[in-house]
């Protein structure tokens, strides 16, 4: 019997960015070491330089995730860049019954993996002071409302003061934790009365931007000014000169977070566990500790060229896939396109797309879909290894991942599938390796969201056309064919005859409609017309086609008919009308006259001629009734 493996979740955002993909890999490694399943809920983050995605679109899925299915949850709030999204996810996780660990910021009510930010910055500043003997040091901060920026700036000031140096050094400039203010910062530091010997930056991105700006101003790094970063990003390690920085030791973070959750889920407590991750500085070329290695330059250039080649190939493949997906006429064809063309974001073993259903079971791409019911149905199911137990008819939020029959740990990525303001459902991806997918997977999901939106719009248009067509051939009062619909339908049937057949036409006229309208009003007259039409419908059991010709007159047509069937139809009508009169006890009696005509007809037959004969026979019956009513 296969053992029940613990399942943990990680909620994060922008996990495929170059910095955060290292974190994703670290958690994949740690989960494998601990033999647990890991589900990473990833949000896109910013899709443009401004917040173009509303929180409800990015986190719409989390409302339907039952956290009881997990033994523990990791929260990485640092990557959320859409306003309001972090707060919404936090509120959800605060309601969890399982333990929750925060790994990027201290949150009351959660267990916290603390990162010794201050210790890392201290080591870098003291390296400049003690090893390089710099006394003129500047500081490039992140934007100061950010708690990391405040912590790091306070530690910089503390270290400087302890060494008898001005708290802000030769000067402090507030940056943005990104590449945008490097030139402003360079102008600021170069304009100071005392030019700095070194500049400590609060993260790598600002350090890279600053070095680029200094180079443009003719300043060499580190010969003229030494520079350091923070966070130990891949960009900083590839940059020339390689940045001296402080790494966050993400594998240690992942191991400690998952080990803590396993321990807690087994009934343990956190007392005595070391939940602090200590950063490790590395001193490289930008502070002057290591010489520039040209072999490293060549290796970096070769790798960048290879990445550019793969990027261009990925773009071409994405363009082709987008064209195909935009032509997809069903989710089944979308699945085929994905299975054949999804080669540009990494190797995967399984992919599933689940869409919302409403209370009527309609999928979210159905134009008549109302509100999510909390149920999902699989519409795309790609299981390359045959490890899953088959496509279930429905999944609810307590079982967001399909059942697997393999006895190995799994790592899944779950992302919402949406387009504009519409949230269709979510996608589950299991990769074959430990690395996360690249950004082309996001392109796939965006495009499939657009394709689902197109399917929904097409479905709406098709249903609208059918309704309009129905209105053009259907009588609104009775639901029967109108005169045009009757003539078109019967004309097509007769034209399709390959041999002569016995056909029957009937003309039915209500007796006394004018009297009903005059005495009881047109509303009651319409009610009587509907009642007679219902009797016609119930009598039509042998392929009869019925239509309302207008007013109180109805047409009937049937092929492959007989005198016996015609008699049965008339008898049935008389019986139903009698039952109606008996049941309703009205101040008038529902009654009708009918004319029937049977003849042999081939494809050249004319329905109009047959109806004329039926109409004449109907009139004969009507005038023959004693005390007949108009």
Structure description:
This protein has 17 helices and 22 strands. With 630 residues, it is α/β, with parallel strands linked by helices. Among the domains are: 153 residues, Response regulator (Rossmann fold); 133 residues, no CATH class; 142 residues, 2-Layer Sandwich (Alpha-Beta Plaits), CATH 3.30.70.270. The strands form five sheets. Strands 5-4-3-1-2-17-18-14-15-16 form a ten-stranded mixed β-sheet, sandwiched between helices. It has a four-stranded parallel β-sheet with strand order 8-7-9-10, with helices on both faces. α1 packs across α9, α6 crosses α7 and α10 runs antiparallel to α11. It is elongated and about 125 Å long. About 1% of the residues have low confidence.
């Amino acid at each position: 019997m296969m053992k029940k493996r613990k399942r943990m979740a990680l909620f994060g955002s922008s996990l495929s960015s170059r910095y955060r993909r290292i974190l994703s890999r670290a958690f994949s490694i740690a989960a494998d070491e601990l033999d647990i399943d890991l589900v990473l809920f990833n949000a896109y983050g910013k899709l443009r330089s401004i917040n173009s995605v509303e929180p409800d679109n990015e986190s719409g899925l989390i409302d339907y995730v039952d956290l009881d299915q997990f033994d523990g949850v990791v929260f990485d709030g640092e990557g959320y860049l859409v306003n309001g999204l972090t707060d919404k996810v936090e509120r959800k996780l605060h309601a969890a019954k399982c333990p929750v660990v925060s790994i990027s910021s201290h949150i009351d009510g959660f267990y916290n993996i603390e990162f010794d930010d201050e210790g890392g910055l201290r080591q870098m500043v003291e390296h400049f002071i003690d090893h390089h003997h710099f006394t003129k040091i500047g500081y490039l901060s992140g934007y100061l409302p950010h708690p990391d920026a405040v912590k790091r700036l306070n530690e910089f000031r503390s270290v400087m003061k302890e060494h008898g140096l001005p708290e802000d050094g030769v000067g402090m400039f507030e940056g943005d934790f990104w590449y945008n203010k490097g030139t402003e910062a360079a102008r600021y530091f170069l304009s100071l009365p005392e030019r700095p010997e070194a500049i400590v930056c609060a993260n790598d991105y600002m350090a890279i931007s600053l070095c680029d700006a200094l180079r443009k101003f003719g300043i060499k790094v580190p010969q003229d000014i030494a520079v350091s970063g923070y966070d130990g990003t891949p960009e900083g390690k590839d940059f020339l000169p390689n940045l001296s920085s402080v790494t966050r030791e993400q594998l240690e973070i992942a191991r400690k977070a998952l080990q803590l959750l396993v321990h807690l889920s087994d009934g343990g407590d956190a007392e005595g566990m070391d939940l602090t991750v200590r950063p490790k500085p590395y001193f490289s070329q930008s502070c002057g500790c290591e010489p520039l290695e040209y072999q490293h330059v060549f290796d970096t250039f070769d790798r960048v060229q290879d990445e550019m080649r793969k990027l261009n190939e990925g773009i071409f493949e994405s363009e082709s896939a987008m064209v195909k997906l935009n032509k997809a006429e069903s989710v089944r064809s979308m699945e085929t396109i994905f299975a054949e063309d999804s080669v540009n974001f990494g190797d995967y073993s399984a992919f599933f797309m689940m869409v919302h259903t409403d209370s009527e079971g309609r999928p979210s791409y159905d134009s008549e879909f109302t509100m999510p019911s909390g149920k999902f149905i699989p519409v795309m199911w790609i299981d390359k290894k045959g490890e899953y137990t088959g496509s279930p008819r429905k999944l609810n939020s307590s079982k967001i991942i399909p059942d697997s029959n393999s006895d190995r740990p799994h790592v899944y990525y779950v992302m919402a599938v949406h387009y504009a303001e519409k949230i269709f459902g979510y996608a589950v991806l299991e990769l074959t390796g430990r690395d996360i997918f690249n950004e082309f997977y996001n392109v796939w999901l965006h495009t499939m969201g657009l394709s689902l939106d197109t399917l929904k719009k097409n479905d709406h248009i098709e249903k609208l056309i059918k309704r309009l067509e129905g209105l053009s051939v259907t009588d609104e009062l009775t639901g029967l064919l109108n005169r045009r619909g009757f003539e078109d339908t019967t004309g097509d049937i007769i034209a399709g005859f390959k041999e002569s057949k016995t056909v029957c036409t009937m003309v039915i006229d209500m007796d006394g409609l004018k009297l009903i309208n005059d005495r009881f009003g047109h509303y009651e007259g319409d009610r009587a017309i509907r009642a007679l039409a219902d009797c016609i419908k119930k009598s039509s059991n042998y392929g009869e086609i019925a239509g309302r010709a207008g007013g109180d007159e109805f047409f009937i047509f049937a092929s492959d008919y007989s005198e016996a069937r015609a008699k049965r139809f008339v008898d049935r009508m008389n019986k139903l009308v009698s039952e109606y009169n008996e049941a309703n006890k009205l101040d008038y009696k529902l009654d009708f006259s009918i004319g029937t005509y049977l003849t042999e007809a081939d494809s050249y037959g004319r329905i109009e001629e047959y109806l004329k004969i039926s109409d004449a026979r109907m009139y004969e019956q009507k005038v023959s009734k004693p005390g007949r009513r108009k």
